[in-house]
Automatic annotation (TrEMBL):
SMART domains: PINc (SM00670). It comes from Uliginosibacterium flavum. Keywords: ATP-binding, Nucleotide-binding. This is PhoH family protein. In the N-terminal section; belongs to the PINc/VapC protein family. Residues 14-149 form the PIN domain. PANTHER family: PIN DOMAIN-CONTAINING PROTEIN, PROTEIN PHOH.
Amino acid sequence: MATRKAAVKIPPTKLFVLDTNVLMHDPTSLYRFQEHDIFVPMMTLEELDNNKKGMSEVSRNARQASRTMDEVVTTCEHHIDQGIPLTVPSRGQASGRLFLQTQAINATLPASVPTAKADNLILSVVMFLTETRKDRHVILVSKDINMRIKARALDLEAQDYFNDKVLEDTDLLYTGMTELPENFWDTHGKDMESWKEAGRAYYKVRGPLCAEMVVNELVYQEGDKPFYSIVKQKDGPAVVLESLIDYAHQKNNVWGIVARNREQNFALNLLMNPEVDFVSLLGQAGTGKTLLTLAAALTQVLETKRYAEIIMTRVTVPVGEDIGFLPGTEEEKMGPWMGALEDNLEVLNGSPEDGGGYGGEWGRAATRDLIRTRIKIKSLNFMRGRTFLNKFLIIDEAQNLTSKQMKTLITRAGPGTKVVCLGNIAQIDTPYLTEGSSGITYVVDRFKGWEHSGHITLQRGERSRLADYAAEIL
């Protein structure tokens, strides 16, 4: 037993070899490895240099990564081959060292692996370090799946870069609502206070479940007497629940639209609430995200005049091949990307079959023109430095945004502006983004519990039985 105890010693800190795509994905990744050391091969620096030109997000990140590395290297006061401490440049975020390749490395890769390729040169560095540094646990970190497969085929350890992931499992993502158990009122009804104010019922309850609730979470109980409410306040072990407006009833219709299910009712309560400045809606295709948001936006812009106009934007990531440059102004170029807007406006403007409701064909045309004057379509590329006052800002297809782009967009909001993010994390088209690292996952997680934000995950498709079945089985 004594010899076994002697053999077990505390493993030293790891040595992570960074692939170029990690630095281009997150320029601050040098500071994300805590007490562990980082090794940057010369080929990684070469590839950063090759990718620094241009105005794309990748080029911007390559330049930022180079600047970060320059900041670290300039703090070095001794021999660079002994490693550069990261504590000072990272302001205490990382306590490891940065090693740069200072010598020619000639590791013998198998004959079948071509040595002229940049990826394989990085693999040769990992192989060399694994063979020569037996005292260290050497791991390659890469966002490139094929690179990781090749590394494992050569019996080298490789990992994905996980630091940008908000959640490991998206099933754990906050849904924005909780079903109350049947015995909720028995266990939480003691010393309950209830009152009415401005047509709403309020209940102040205490109990074990209250600790888990967050502000603006929607709670419900189905049964003979369904109970739908929102957590208005949280005060230690007590919460104040506020009853909701029933948007499923025709008298409360929003621009002619009524909620078809519980989640849509919850979503409309958040969208129509002036106290909620930020709303995020997640859901698969056909759950009504864009339709509900546009209906709420038109009502609050044209009827109640709460906002001056609607601004709609989305990421221009094509699903298939790009069709090349588009003619016209910024708005005309964004036109083909805004098919979802046109389709939903058609629904909201009434179809010829139902009489339109706006004085026949002429009335409908006039209404359509009025609506279009209040909707501005903007490209993401020109958002930096802008401020939107009293606007209803809709960010569509937000699952294709990175957390950094999401921050850029949401911080455009000036006084009186409401921001709504719509997305479906099952349909990500941006390379290197996953369900766990998408910008919308990031904001849902970070805004959870803020008194002026709300989130709902829409679950039931309302587009058509064909769309629902396709989303389920395909």
